[in-house]
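User: Good morning. I'm curious how alanine would be positioned relative to this chain. Could you predict the structure with it bound?
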Amino acid sequence: MTLLKNLFQTKSFHDNSNASLGLRRCLTATDLTFLGIGAIIGAGVFVLTGFAATQAGPAIIFSYLLAAFVCGLNALAYAELASSVGGCGSAYGYAYAVLGELVAWIIGWDLLLAYGMNAVTVSMGWSAYFTEALHAAGINIPKSLCADPLHGGVINLPAMLIILLLAKILATGIKQSAKFNKIIVFVKLGVIALFIGIGSFYFDAANWKPFAPFGLQGIVNGAGLIFFAYIGFDTITTAAEEAVNPKRDLPIGIIASLGICTLVYILVAGVLTGIMYYPTLNIGSPVATSLFKLGFHFSAEIIAIGAIAGLTTAILVLYYGSTRIFLAMARDGLLPKSIAKIDKKTHTPRKLIWMLGGIFSLAAGILPINQIAEFVNFGVLTAFCIVSICVIVLRYTQPNLNRPFKTPWSPLVPILGVISCLYLMKSLSAITWLSFIIWTVIGLVFYFKYGRANSVILNRSVVLENTA
Ligand code: ALA
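Assistant: Good morning! Here's the predicted structure, ligand included:
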């Protein structure tokens, strides 16, 4: 009975939001919105749009809207918890405060891998664009040095190097990282505007016939794939302890970044399918290639450079998110605290950043991309489900909690959030489900061997029981 009680021991909200980690509070609502856009716009739109268009046709616009709807439902739940529960642990922290330690551990463990592998996946897309850009400039990197062993190479060196470069930036300081992110977000929004501007002059309505060649099923399949393009708005919540006014600014950052990106995606998808007939879009760099085919060679090169910039910030913010989740878990004693120490000068967890950077870099050098991307979707969808469930439970357990932002029409909206995530998860492959189960079992072994013995909350309860 005590074991069961311990496993579902929750953490007080005070512990979650007010503990001082030594991080620096310096991020504004604008910084947070830019961090969101930085994480969201990446491989999804620059790489996956073409593949998704071959599944949905020009109706990919509706796939984007559908995926935005699913994310929007859960984004409202994130906004409510970020403003009321707080803490840099994101879904892990909310689950700890609402559903207890065991669920929190499972979700934190899941998110560590999902964010980390997401950064790795995008770094592989980055490498592909980068080697292509070098090739266009007449510099050729041998395939053995820019592809993983399963794709005819030995090691993916560019993917490894970009992660190490970003480790250096993240370790320097959050304000510097946010500034770097902001500049690059301007570059990527600029090249997307260039694409929409040029492309809209060449829009040919004939390419939109038929508009939905694969019907509703095609739209749903496209949404399942394109969901990846929206991942990232949730990482803003990991910046809760570095935000100046998290209760007000986190909901603004989440909703604004998701809204802006949805608009951008719909415009890109509409223009892309209007200038190229959808069956010809089965390519890895549809945005740049379509302009190239229109004869805008120079603009296509600029777009490719913008895509590289876009992918860089997606890696940066996802990598940042994984370090903050680790930090929150280490603060609670569930992971080794010594690794997550904050450097007094830079106010960053330098050791942790370099340790995770080393692991991610190695993974980027040798792992194949496809399987990881599905796993990322699975991990993030699980977190979304838990966050929406937390909102529903918390409305009953803590009806009077101060909620600066409230999810409208609760519990309908969070219930729809959970159902829509489960629906998308159902379509993922058996191997992805199996990988998730294996990863969770490894996590549970670690938890029962290490986490429970070192858990701050559990040890505190033991002390209280002994002194009572
Ligand atoms: N949303 C991010 C991307 O599209 C993960 O790259």
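The first helix runs from residue 2 to 7. The chain has 18 helices and no strands.
Let me know if you'd like a different ligand tried.
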